[in-house]
Amino acid sequence: MRRKSLIFILLAGFVLLFSGTALAADHSQGKDCLSCHPKYDHSRLQKYEGSKTCLPCHSDQVNEVIHSDHYTWQSKPVNLIDASGKSWPADKPVGKLGGLNDFCITPDINFLGILTNKNGVNVKGGCAQCHIGMGGNPAKLTEEQNKENVDCLLCHADYAVYNRNLKTVVYGQDGKYYYIPNTAVIDIVYLKKATVAGTVDITAALKSIKKTPDNKNCLQCHAFAGGGANNKRGDLEPIHMTDPAKVDVHMGKGLSCLSCHKTENHKIAGRGVDLRTNELNYNVRCENCHTTSVHKGPLGATLNNHIKSIDCTTCHVTEYAITQSTDVFRDWSQAEYNSVTALYEPKIERGQNLKPVYLWWNGTSYAQPTDAPAVFNKNNKYVPDRTTKPDYVTLFAPIGSINDPKAKIFPFRYHYAYMPIDPVTGKFFPALAGYVFMTGDTLGGFTKGYKMWFGVDLVTPVKWVYAERYMGLYHEVKPASQALSCTSCHSNRGILDWKALGYKGDPILYGARKLATTPVVKTYTVTKTTYLYATASTKAFKLTTLKAGTKVTYVSTSGNYYKVQVKVGTNTYTGYVLKSYLK
Hints:
Blueprint: H1 2-28, H2 51-54, H3 59-65, H4 69-72, E1 80-81, E2 113-116, E3 122-125, H5 143-147, H6 153-156, E4 167-171, E5 177-181, E6 192-193, H7 202-207, H8 215-222, H9 239-242, H10 249-252, H11 257-260, E7 263-264, E8 267-268, H12 300-306, H13 312-316, E9 326-338, E10 343-351, E11 357-361, E12 365-367, E13 393-398, E14 408-421, H14 433-439, H15 442-454, E15 463-472, H16 486-489, H17 507-510, E16 523-525, E17 530-533, E18 542-546, E19 551-558, E20 561-568, E21 571-578
Parallel strand pairs: 1-12, 9-14, 13-15
Antiparallel strand pairs: 2-3, 4-5, 4-6, 7-8, 9-10, 11-14, 12-13, 14-15, 16-19, 17-18, 19-20, 20-21
Protein name: Cytochrome c
Organism: Carboxydothermus pertinax
Keywords: Signal
């Protein structure tokens, strides 16, 4: 019996030894673990509490997310200047948090809450409705708290079974607001709940988990930014989620948001005029897929030459807000009652089928600092409306001019608002938006916002000013058949104001812009000893001997010779050398 046991143990040892060797061999070949081991079934999880549930297996990924722009809503400024022309300090973060804007004023004091509408119904409120978190303000949480505050399913679950509209806001016994999935049963420990339509089947949501977000995951927030459908961007309408072919040639052919907005470790590429950061060293641009010789046919060369001064979007994004109107002007001094939501909102003027504004842009933006007095356009040489709207304050604008070799003409969306500043300090300040929405008292909302923002009471009447911004238009791209034609610009009724762009008139009549160019210096190396001749002939006078390895600078071409300049000892010569002796 002992002998049989010993034999069994030895056999088992050999099996383990060789299976271990085989396993190591498999690993060294870089095989996918899932080729042998089945994919983990997330629906086995009993409940979902945001990244707190995911953290045990995905700690690296959670750590990446909480340091991304999409989560922090803050980042280092990239190519950004203020009214003095100075670059923003690298250690001075920019973004939604800590900033002010003309749409929602600021998320800092309006992050998440519960509003009671005129029908007595509790509803969700706050900017966190478009944040990839579970309700906590990342700027006010510790590192460990942030690790449990990410809503992973918002991007990685199927939109049909889990999305931001199926979450509810609850008010806990700790005096804080949280987001939770609106399941059929909600824990009674919460003191207050905001009602929403529909419930979440957590099992179905967990079962639908995918590695890569699709367009609906992105657009559930980006198509509804600014408090409503297409309110903010103008070129990201809800129809992109259902029938994108009607408005965008790229999405219509099946491209995803991530086809252009490359990702790496949960960082996403993208930089706009008013989006002042780019967390990846990657520029999202048409030329990443289309070459600068993309145009063919009789006019191909002419159109390709246009790309030196005109961005592709100028001709291919001809209008925006095609199926859904967008916010054009937001008046924060007045409130209007919305019978659908039974809440108030600032007075909003909307527009549809809008045409872009065309300006030069070199990739650098101007931004009004939040913590500095408002700079009126008449005192700001970096904004487009310095003379036409001198008493406006520009919040965001493109930098560039006809004389800037890095600048091209781009299409922009224009938005403006009526906002208050403190007449004493000259600074903008926010409203407590939830108070405005529930009461319609805009001045009261700003008075309360002033106290929360500065920590003191507002003692002087506010000064109302117009604030404007320019936003890039990169979506709703038209195919070639629907793009601008030659006469769209070059005719008596052309869409471009040539003089405003710095031209004397239509370039067809007055000529294209002339830019000072830096000459390209070509250098060659002598491959074997030869002579430098006074003229392009071996019979000409020999100026000097050129030894193998000598560097010469190209000047011009003459038949089989290059005219070059070379320094030999203390003397500099200009002469001719056979091309065959150079590389």
